[in-house]
Amino acid sequence: MPGRPAARPAGPPSGRPARGRDGRPLVRPERRARLLLALALAVLVVFAGRLVQVQALDARSVAEQSLRDRIGPERPLPAQRGDILDADGNVLATSVERRTVVADPLIVDQYKRVEEKQVVAQGLEDAVRDLSSLLGRDEDDVRTALTREGRYSVVAKGITPEVWSEVADLGVPGVTSESTWARSYPGGTLAGGVLGYTGGDDGAGLGGVEAVMDEELSGEDGFQRVERGRMGQAIPMGESERVDPVRGGDVRLTLDRDLQFTAQERAESVREQAKAEWVSVVALEVSTGKVLALAESPSVDPERVGSTDPALLGSRSVSDVFEPGSTSKVVTAAAALEEGVVEPLDQFTVPYRMTTQNGQSFRDSHHHDDEPLTFAGILGESSNTGTIQVGERLTREQRHDYMQRFGFGQQTGIELPGESAGLLSPADQWDGRQQYTVLFGQGVSVNALQAAEVYATIANGGVRIPPRLVEATVDADGTEHEAQRPAGTRVVSEETAQQVSTMLEGVVAEGTGDAAAVPGYRVAGKTGTAEAPSPTGGYSGYTSSFIGYAPADDPEVVVSVVVQRPTNGFYGGQVAGPLFQDVMAFALAQRGVVPSGEPARLYPQTW
Prior knowledge:
The radius of gyration is 41 Å and the shape is elongated. The protein folds into 2 domains: 75-105 and 123-132 and 153-253, Penicillin-binding protein 2a (Domain 2), CATH 3.90.1310; 257-590, 3-Layer(aba) Sandwich (Beta-lactamase). The longest helix has 29 residues, at 29-57. The protein contains 19 helices and 25 strands. The strands form 8 sheets. Strands 2, 3, 6, 7, 12, 20 and 21 form a 7-stranded mixed beta sheet that branches. A 5-stranded antiparallel beta sheet has the order 14-13-25-24-23, with helices on both faces. The chain is an alpha+beta fold.
């Protein structure tokens, strides 16, 4: 019609965006598609770049990092500790294989045990029950171990390989074992105080030979690392790293197992009979200083140190000191003879009680009338008053000097921890009484090994050889290294030693030591009965002893017996003499020593 405007074409005007009913512009589909395509291409470019970086540029470092992530933590491989052997190679201490059972708590609940096609156990609680039954552990303890946070938990230690085999047969997921070693002492308490014990996480030596020779015995630990999957399981044929441990070396001692056993068994019997606090038996080889036996009662089981009185964990024979009493009169005798102030047949009138020039009063152990005794008789009868008469001919310095020469107041150097040097005060510190008491073994103290060493010196012709316990060490490859033999030191002349030896034979044949005689052999020795110092001051009880050697004409073995605070008898000859006889008789027979020939021509005891 004329006058009507022409109709507008559909759609927005050219150059203007289309709008919806609400007036908002509508996006064109082609533009949205282009935008999405651009974004996708950008993401692909990023991924492609990262892929090129990972697979091409950083491939080696990424692979190495991935392998490190899969390789589990380093697990130690403990070295087997070396053995301790006796002189003949018999094992006194060794290491036995044990297992530490560990678990991965995250996968233990997947446990399932099937028997005859039937599920008989399943899940965490059944795993707890089955494991605790085989391991001999409380169920609560096992449950705690299996539910602990993390992927590594110790379930049980010290498990035998036989028990572990049964545990492994259960097939509990995540339960594995690590090899370790436990110390074993086949003889139980045999030489327990000498061998010592081990302990701590590394099984190091903590006492006795185990501690002193720890470096030689320990060896070198190794380690192992294996490649593991996401759940912690070892990947078969995966990467691994292993350094094998190196076994420790062996230590061979001078001890004779059979003699040690006999001495220790008899010491235990005497301790019970005498109702004593403790008993020590030391046996030395005269010509070398080798310790053949170092027996004590009570002894200790090195495998059960946790329940043992700490006082028993060392060797009393080297750590405990006592006043030697009359056994040390041999030092006074040797000093007087060496200095030429007396001869074995010199005559003395010996009273029961005497008073010295400075007013000190002394007496003998038994009441007697004045006795006409030779010097040999004074030693044979173990007279205190007679010994003082002889000792007064020596100066203070001479008395002290000879005690030092024989080893008083100094360690022997034995390969054991905790050795006491004993007590020997300087001569200028002796009071008016001590200057005399040291002549018969009071006011001075020694350990049992020092006391035995004195008699070994006389038996060895006057030459003192420090005692030793270690014969040799043996490397893991079998190479043996003999221990250094200490040099001897002359203390008195051979003539003096022979005179003292003949006097000591008289002690056994005609004096106080008759209970120590060994039929068929010439025995030299001396009894000792001394008051025992109390830890709280003063004296309480007695120290009873006998020390001697045989055959006296060609000495091979020294045996020292010390019985501390016996209550059923207390004289040295009565309590310690029979024990000496038993041990010496065994030692001579074991070594094949032929019986002695003609009896000695002894010095007369009286005049």
